Structure formats: C-alpha cells, structure tokens
Amino acid sequence: MAEAHQAVAFQFTVSPDGIDLQLCHEALRQIYLSGLHSWKKRFIRFKNGVMTGVYPGSPGGFMVVVVSYMSYNQYRRLDPSMGLIAKLGQHMPISRYMSTDSQRIVGGVLVGTGLWVTIIMIMRNVLKSLLSWHGWMHARHGSVSWSTRLWLILVKVFSGRKPMLYSFQNSLPRLPVPTIKDTCRRYLESVRPLMEDERYERMEGLTKDFEKNLGPRLQWYLKLKSWWASNYVSDWWEEYIYLRGRGPIMVNSNYYAMDFLYVFPTSIQAARAGNAIHAIMLYRRKLDRAQRIKPSNCLSFSVFLFFSPLTIGPRLPDVLQHVNDSKHIAVYHKGRFFKVWMFYDGRLLLPREIEQQMERILADSSEPLPGEEKLAALTAGDRTPWAKARETYFGRGKNKNSLDAIEKAAFFVTLDDTEQRFEEDNPVKSLDSYAKSLLHGKCYDRWFDKSFNLIVFKNGTMGLNAEHSWADAPIIGHLWEHVLSMDPLKLGYTEEGHCCGEPHPNLPGPQRLSWDVPAECQEVIQSSLTVARNLADDVDSHIFPFIDFGKGLIKKCRTSPDAFIQIALQLAHYRDKKKFCLTYEASMTRLFREGRTETVRSCTLETCAFVRAMIGDETREECLSLLKLAAEKHQNMYRLAMTGEGIDRHLFCLYVVSKYLGEDSPFLKEVLSDPWRLSTSQTPLQQVELFDLVRHPEYVSSGGGFGPVADDGYGVSYIIVGENLINFHISSKHSSPETDSHRFGANIRQAMLDILDLFQLEKKTK
Asked: What's the domain range around 439?
C-alpha cells in the first residue's frame, strides 16, 4: 500500500558532525514530472481558450489579414494607420522614440488587428443568425430543399475549418421567450383531452385571467432576464428542480446506463475496470486538454462539470463544485474506501496498471472501520440529515481529508461483489435485477453525489449511475458510447482476459482512506439507509429488448420512429389504466446557448382520437388516417420544443418570478401541481460511427433508465439500436395498486405490434 512507500522528497538528521541531507531522487523526479505535466495542461488550456475566444477566426487568419493589409498599404504608399499614429503623437511622445518606418509597422498591426476583430464579429453574428433559422427542421423526411442546402453551405463557410468543442457557444442564439398568449393557448390544448368539460371550463377561466392580468407583468421580468442572462431557464431549472430538493436523489433523480446486451468482453472484474477507467480518463484528456471531441449540439456548457461532485451544505441549496484537473479516483469495495492515483511518471496509468491497482484492492482483506461500510448511505437518503452530518462530523481531521479525497476525485468506482448479466434462459429476472442494482445497489455502495459512478460487477459486467443536476442523459451517454467503443475493440484483452500490457514493478499501491465515525453519526447513517432501502425496495423495474422489429420497419411506414413509439405508449397506457394522463417526453434545446431540456406533452387530442379508434370498432383505414394525424402532431410539437417554443419551461420560469414578487397565481399553482404519471425519454445513439452494427450486430447497448416520477405513474426510457432492436426500461412503484411494470411492458409490446399491423407491410411486399 501507498503508506509503506517513502512520501517525502528528502530527509535530514542533525548530528554533532552537522546536518546530513538524504535526498530521494525518485521523489524529486516525480515532483518535476508532475509540475511539467501541470504546466503543459495550463498551456494547452490557454491555447484552447484563445482559439475558442476568437472563433470563427483563428491566429492564422490574423496573420493573413494583418500581412495583407500592410502589403496593400505598402504597395499603394498609404499610411496604414490612416493618420492614427500622427494624431496620437500630438498627445504622446511617440515620434521621439519611433522612426517613421516603425510607426508604419505599429500602425499597420493596430489597424489590421482592428480589421481582423471586425471580421470576426461580423462572421460570429452572421453565424448566430444562421443558427437561429430552423426551417430545415420542417423539411419532409428524405428531401432537402434548396433553402436548406444554401443554409448548410453558409453555415459551413462561416463555421471555419476546424471548430473545437466549445467553439459554437458564443455563436449560438439565446433561448427565446414565447409569448404569454401562445403558451396559454398551447397549455389549454394540451390539457383538453385530460379534463372533463366542467374542470376544463374552470381552467380556461383561470388561464384567461392570468393571460390578461398577472401574466404580462411576470413576462416583463422574464424578458428582462432573457436579455441579460445567457439562458433564461437553465440556472433556475438547475437550482429549483435539482439543487434545492431535500428528498433523496437516489431513484428520484439519478439515472443509470447499462453495458452491452449480448457481449461480455472479460469475466475478470479488475481487468474490465482497468480498460473502462482508462477509457474514461482518455475522454477527459480529450475534453479537458485538447478539446478534440467533435462539436455536438448535445454537448454544451454542461461538459465543464463532467468530473464534478454535488456538494451539500447546512443551508439551501446544494452546489456543484467543479474540480479542476483531479489526478485520482475513489474506489469502494466491501465497505472500504480507497484513493487511487491515475498518474505516475508524469503520464496516465495504462489499462494493465490500473488493473493492477484494482487487483490490490480486491486482494485487501482488511475489515471496514466502524461506520465506514454504510457511510455512503448518507448520500442516498434525505439531504438535510446528510448536510447536518457533513458539517458536524466531516468538517475537520481525518474525516475531512477522506471526504475530500472522495469529493475531489475525478469520479467514483464501485467494485461490486454481486454478479449481474443478461441471461438468455432468464432474460426478464436477470435484466430487472441488473437495472435495480445500477439504479440503487445496496443503497450504501454508490456515492450518489458524484457526477457519475462507474460500477463494475464481480463477473465483469459494468454500468454507470449518474447524478442529474449537472447535465442530462445525452451528455453522459456521449461519454459512455466512447467507453464502450474503446473497451473491447481498441483497448482489448489478452486470451486470459487481462488488460493488454504488463504490470508496473514499482507502482505505489492504492491508499486506504481512514475514518473516525462516532456512534451518533452511525445512527444518522442507519436512519438514512432505512429511508433509502424503503425507496429502493418500492421500485418495480422491468427491462425488455423489443426484437420483433425496429427502426428499419418503422421507416417503411413513413412515420417518425419516435412518434411511432410515443403513440404506442399512449395506446399501451390506456389499455393498462383505462385512462389518459399527462405525459412528459424530454426534448433537447441544444440549438440555443446553455440549452438543456424542454417538455413535449405527448398526450394530444389527435393521439387520444387514435387510441379510442383502436379500442373501438373503427376500420383499419380510419385508424391509419388518425395515426398519421397523431404522428404529424407529435412531430410538430417536438419541433416547437426544440426551437424554443415549448410551454413548460416558460410556465416554470413565470412561476419562479411570481414567487420572487410574492404574487399568488392560482393558474400557475395548478399547472405546476399536475403530476406527470407517464414520464418518457429516448436515449439517443449519438456516435453511430463508433459502432459497426452491420458487421458486429452483437455490440448493441442496453441503454439506460430512471426511476418513476409519480407515485402512481410509470417512467419509460427507450433506445433505438440499429435497424431491428428497441430496448425499453420501465419503472413504477410496488406500493401503487394502479401500476405494474411487467404488465405495462406487455401492453407496450402488443401496442407496437398492433400499430405496425395497420400498415400491412407484408401485403405490400407481396
């Protein structure tokens, strides 16, 4: 272990003969390499900051503009400064110290720089105007209009040759504030199929009163914020939806991502952890140092918080603490916490060296200290007891040092002592158990406050548990796709299942963290664990791969795959509960600066009409006609949400303003109190080029999921993988007599088959 290694650069002893210095050259060498590594990172960050700051310009463009400008003026015998230097000379003694030629050069550089900055600002504003146009979203699938082609060409021209990850942020438009009138009209339209006539008339009256009286006043403040802030929603959404909540974030907020469905690269736990940890650190290097990750409208300001903990305090709210350049990870195994350095000899540890460190942890037979084993249950229970315990028991001494080691780690790793895996002979039970383990585990073996936990099971299967406040699922999905593509195909394993390479003969071992947890704190830990276990035991998870058909057949129906699935969910829900409900589908607003999510209210009048037709005696032709109307309506609502014309974030911000002003709005209060009894989200496969599913169809991801949002509702996540597979993740609560995740899964499967049958593709093929 690391404690056994020499930890100082030099020692000295005082004797009658004088002072005897004993220098440790290896320690000094490590100090030198660490400093060199740090300065290299600083230089790269500075360079990237400059490159991003002048985007869409570049230093090369600066040289071209300045040299061209000076050459032109030299050829025409003109004063490049246009008399600027001469005027400055009247007030400052420039001419005394500079010759005429020097003045020409300085003037040329100054004016050329001004010209270059002007060109950059023009290009940036033109690019912002281009990115504000969303007409391309309304084009028919498979066809590209001339206006869209021209738009693509202009965006390419004004984007420069090699945009970096954060280059587009300053060029993205601000999220627009919809009008009160449009938001109120769309809200009433969205709740019409869910309300009886009497309740709807009452809601209509509240809406009109709000639109006429309080609404315009709140809108004025919101407009003011939209002009001042980069995004009028994101900071309030982060604070009031995530950071101010005092309930458990486990299950209620955190979500999970699964491993490959059919492929098991190795059964050696330490080896799988070695490759996965190395791949994550390589992703961080690309993200943090070189920004070599391709710009994507799913990646924005949130990526700055990729390796950050959620830190809580005794007062509201929780805060996101960005840890800059953490060089270690925290590892949990059988009740013990370890600190593992990721760098040695001035370089990142190789996969086999990380495996070596994991092997040492697995071989450690020491017992947990009193209160250590279940310590992480504090992060799984209610937030207030954890905040008070953190301040009382973890504010100083060894507890503070150990807590800092966890919170300042790049990420958290759990070497789980259970086995999870998809089993062909028992698919339902195995996948349900796997999902629940990733979502909550034992409630004390994940650190739920970390931005994400890498969980590696005893048989080599792995997954992620991610904290939600810092970013949405597509951000963590981008990282996870990188890890899964690197692990078996690029990093690989030996025939015995170990990571490629050799162990390091002199690598210092992991450091065991030390705790002093008093009996009073142990009682708080046990209380939090009880709360967390009650929550975890109530989760009813069901994961099933839908293999009957996939995106390929849905496209032949000339229907959006997402609309197809969302309408199937409405049909399944009606069959399951015999009623419609307020439905949440997450949509991204990454077309705007610092955009996060917006809501698509998928339960529409058109969808309800289709469902009633399917339940009733209408003909296939009538059902098919209603289906097309419902799909078109859904696609239009999705476009509105993506282009800043959604209603729920606008209503949320109006409610926040009303609270700041001390105004009580019956309309907003009722709107925000309606529960989302069906909460849905699609997990997009963003980096399709990383997976060749044609040649290697077995490398399909299981996707990920989340807990139920309402006590009597369902949470549904789905991922469309390749052309022939859709994975569904369903969650609900055992305590609700209205829900059953397995029953709902069967209804989803039948609804998908029934909708496909309307198109009669088999007859068309014949």
From this structure: 250-537
